[in-house]
Hints:
Elements: H1 2-13, E1 20-30, E2 42-43, E3 45-58, E4 63-68, E5 77-80, H2 94-105, E6 114-120, H3 130-146, H4 152-167, H5 174-181, E7 186-191, E8 197-201, E9 207-213, H6 225-239, H7 253-259, H8 266-291, H9 294-310, H10 317-327, E10 332-338, E11 345-351, H11 355-370, E12 375-378, E13 386-391
Helix pairs in contact: 2-3, 2-4, 3-4, 3-5, 4-5, 6-8, 8-9, 10-11
Amino acid sequence: MEQKLLDAMKKAYGHDGSNVRLFFAPGRVNLIGEHIDYNGGYVFPCSLSIGTYMAVKRRTDNVVNMTSLNFPDEGTIQFSLDELVYKKEDDWANYPKGVIKEFVNLGKTSDQGFDAVFFGNIPNGAGLSSSASVELVTAVMWNEVNGFDLPMVEMVKIGQRAENDFIGVSCGIMDQFAIGMGRENKAILLDCNTLDYAYSPIELGDYALVIANTNKRRGLADSKYNERRSECDEALASIQKKKDVAFLCDLTSAEFEEVKDAISNPVAQQRAKHAVAENERTKKAAELLGEGDLLGFGQLMNASHVSLRDDYAVSGKELDALVEAAWKEESVIGARMTGAGFGGCTVNLIHKEGLNETIERIGSDYENHTGLKAEFYIAEVGPGAKEITSVKEGER
Length: 396
């Protein structure tokens, strides 16, 4: 990977490889706890071994040049550190640009730009947080090369604000947190209200964590994500007239039953029902995984998908077909959509014995129902965002 990035830097900018620094931020998958991070609930994500790589060399002026190997037709996108404004024509580069702008908002400025090459091996639009990965790799880079010495949690917040305020997507903090704070072979039980968190070892024994990509592309900004968040806000406002709560996920299911009639909009009531129940499932799931109860964990994964399909309505034909194909297999103990929905990926717990044959049958069933070919890969739980190496003068 290092050589690929160095070669790309030479091709794009003529750099010989000296004083080029390399950074990495993973993608993430959420094991359970969907669409509740912005409702004050718990989530249970882990960082992946795939992600976004960034090669950087500082400039002496205030110009920033960015090239992505994933979008070769876009060419090099250029902007000045004096002009950190959203431009539609800058496409993907608005994400790193927004991160740098958030540093400026904190008083962390620089008059020295850089040349950069990005490369991501996260499937674009798959729901594994390629945008948050780009945000965090940029944040770690900008923090390191300028010696700003911000803690990782602050860079996580910078990434979220960039997406909220600069890009205009009302995402919660889970994606950025999982990517920034990830640890190898560990999941994170995160309270998105307080940002209290705990690491939980992922010990799957005879089972493999398999991510399946529907290859039904989804775009977060133009999905119904913001609509769902608005519906939850409506439900919360109605409940607050009867009960003093700050978030939907402050409620237990029993408490929700007592106050749900305050929500006059039946659709908003369904959305709230999912948020409350999913929060309880997530806390229980982390507990079961810690006890090694994989069967119980898998059952909660299944229940999560049903809730996302029926109460939150963020699944869709392709995700449902892929999950249902997995449910037909005896060796699959849990399967659910993961991410924002409307396409993207599923996450599955599948017995390792006959794994390839199981995956083949699931893929065939899915293609028969949708006409699409799913892609499968066994997930490796990797580290969080970091500098991976530094190529100094004279090393090449």
